[in-house]
Structure to design on (241 residues):
């Protein structure tokens, strides 16, 4: 419930604009505000750019720069690691402009935002790999990039999206492998078999799928299931580590 409340507050804050920014951003004409915001974007001054763009979005929600302001806010939020605000802005833009000429870029950015949400700052700093982390943001990112390829196969972002899907597929497969290993250590043999089978079904062309075969064999042996165990031995022989 608290998470839903926080999301609602973020969305409400976004739609209403940032009142504190209205106090610090000068009341210039929209053309001047937008020009200044673009200059800040080009310099990588994300916070200042966001302040000016939010002021524009709040003061002139239906002005001449409205669409571009929202697109720029998506980018600035993403670069500033304000991922919740970036996602809220993307969802708002997609609702209001389902057939916009920049829709492929918006879907692509949604994938990048979800990939960003799959990161952990502590893990990045310590260069730690944690395959047991909740992969829900990675699943969302994978779905976003797949949607981009299905709807906009000729998009200039399609090649990068396809490459990112490969990385995400390995991330998701490694999570399933970590889960199967956990069940093996807990001696939950049926659950381990189910995880291994799902991994081999959904991500058959990954290293994790091959690494899951010995786990599945052990589970079958512990369950006394000789026939599937023998099939698994043959698969291991055909797919040596």
């Amino acid at each position: 419930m608290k998470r839903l409340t926080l999301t609602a507050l973020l969305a409400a804050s976004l739609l209403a604009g940032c009142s504190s920014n209205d106090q610090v951003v000068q009341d210039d004409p929209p053309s001047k505000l937008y020009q200044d915001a673009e200059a800040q974007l080009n310099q990588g001054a994300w916070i200042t750019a966001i302040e000016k763009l939010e002021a524009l979005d709040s003061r002139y929600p239906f002005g001449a720069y409205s669409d571009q302001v929202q697109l720029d806010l998506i980018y600035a939020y993403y670069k500033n690691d304000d991922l919740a605000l970036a996602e809220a802005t993307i969802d708002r833009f997609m609702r209001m402009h389902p057939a916009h000429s920049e829709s492929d870029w918006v879907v692509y950015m949604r994938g990048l935002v979800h990939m960003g949400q799959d990161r952990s700052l502590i893990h990045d700093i310590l260069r730690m790999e944690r395959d047991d982390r909740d992969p829900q943001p990675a699943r969302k990112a994978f779905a976003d990039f797949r949607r981009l390829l299905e709807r906009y196969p000729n998009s200039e972002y399609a090649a990068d999206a396809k490459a990112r899907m490969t990385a995400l597929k390995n991330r998701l497969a490694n999570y399933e492998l970590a889960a199967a290993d956990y069940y093996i250590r807990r001696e939950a043999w049926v659950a381990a078999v189910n995880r291994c089978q799902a991994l081999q079904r959904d991500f058959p062309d990954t290293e994790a799928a091959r690494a899951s075969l010995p786990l599945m064999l052990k589970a079958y042996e512990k369950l006394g299931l000789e026939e599937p165990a023998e099939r698994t031995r043959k698969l291991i022989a055909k797919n040596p580590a």
Remarks:
- The two ends are 45 Å apart (CA to CA).
- The first helix runs from residue 2 to 16.
- The chain is about 75% helix and 0% strand.
